[in-house]
Amino acid sequence: MSAGRCPVAHGSPFDTAGPRIPLHSAEFAADPHRIYREMRSRHGSLVPIELSPGVPATLVIGYQDAVRILNDPEHFPADPRAWQKNIPEDSPVRPMMEWYPNALRNSGTAHARYRSASTTSIDAIDLHDVHAMVERIAIPLINTFCQAGSADLVTQYAFPLVFEVLNRIVGCSPELGQRVATGMAMLFDTIEAAKGMQMLSEALLELISLRRAVPGADITSRLAHHSADLDDEELLTNLITFYGAGIEPQQNLISNTLLLMLTDDRFAGGLLGGSLSTRDALDEVLFNDPPMANFCITYPRQPILIGDTWLPAHQPVLISLAACNNDPAIRSGERAGNRSHLAWAAGPHACPAKSVASVVVQEAIDQLLDALPDMRLAVPADQVVWRPGPFHRALAALPVVFPKTPPLNLV
């Protein structure tokens, strides 16, 4: 080594000479695991990516580095305000990433205040009531298609079920809830995202006004009357966070798990009394195809060294929950019963609604499989289509066929 030469590499993913890997492409959506393997071979743990045209970021695909970052909010805060100053207003990913007064996009005392209001409101949810609620919603939904012998389980089951469960938990009417769901889908797809945010906000502000005046046993009422004394803007953004963490991720987790159970003999056998259960299938999906595949966005306060690479200040660092879960450095053996994945994130920003989401998703799947045990995929597994988008792992459709079945009775 020449005298005075530093042994540590001073490059960063932002200094890369080669092209960035676009996470917004249809190619990535079709086979992300192949691309994760190529990333690991070429770049190691830290990967130069593009979230949308002209929006660079770093993707963390090494498990240990991810755990370090998730548990170090002092060096890796979630506040994007310095970053977004240079991001155009019409950037398709900006509405999903920019600063809001909520727990997701703040650190320190502000984060603690918002997190307290959110967790208190969520912890008051009765899981037994949720279990029964899902059954009451699932059976009428199944009855809308069971006599047809075919269905798209994304649009006819997973989405409307999750949407209705969330509306009831939040205290939202069906009309307001439909506007919320449409706006949130536009945000996640990064298509007309600004219009989606406007639609979402207008509907939720109407709900907030209602629940301030007429409180009930629901999330909105508990947030509106919490000791954190949230104003309307803070209430709005915390509700958006709740919906954002509920509609798309739960819908995708239901659909991704059903796809696995319909195409993998280990789980298909389980439908007929085999050894692997819905819970096992969920655990495997949370490892391999978590509904939020690349998220947990942070923005380093200053340049920081991870391994032999410098991460620049105020530029987005995303955790690839999917790639980290499959890091060869930590992956080994059978996954059944193993819940050491990062699908719910970790650290101070870990998902506070894990228990509620688990009940909703597992009960939704069990209700469907109990009603239609002979269901099978209507197309070859390699022909299912995944929706493009840098953040989620989401099926565009899940077409199935099954013997025509009489409507079920709701007990």
Describe the protein.
The chain has 411 residues and is an alpha+beta fold. The chain has a single domain, classed as Cytochrome P450 (Cytochrome p450). Helix content is 48%, strand content 9%. It contains 17 helices and 10 strands. It has a 5-stranded mixed sheet. Helix 7 packs antiparallel against helix 8. The longest helix is centred in the middle third of the chain and has 21 residues. It starts with 20 loop residues before the first strand and ends in a 10-residue tail after the last strand. The N terminus is likely disordered.
What general form does the structure show?
Answer: globular
CATH superfamily: Cytochrome P450
Mean pLDDT: 89
The total count of helices amounts to 17
Quickly count the domains.
1
End-to-end C-alpha gap: 77 Å
Taken in chain order, the helices and strands follow as EHHEEHHHHHEHHHHHHHHEEEEHHEE
| Helical proportion, percent range | 40-55%
* Largest sheet descriptor: 5 strands, mixed
> What's the total count of β strands?
10
Strand-pairing-aware structural class: alpha+beta
- The rounded Rg comes to 22 Å
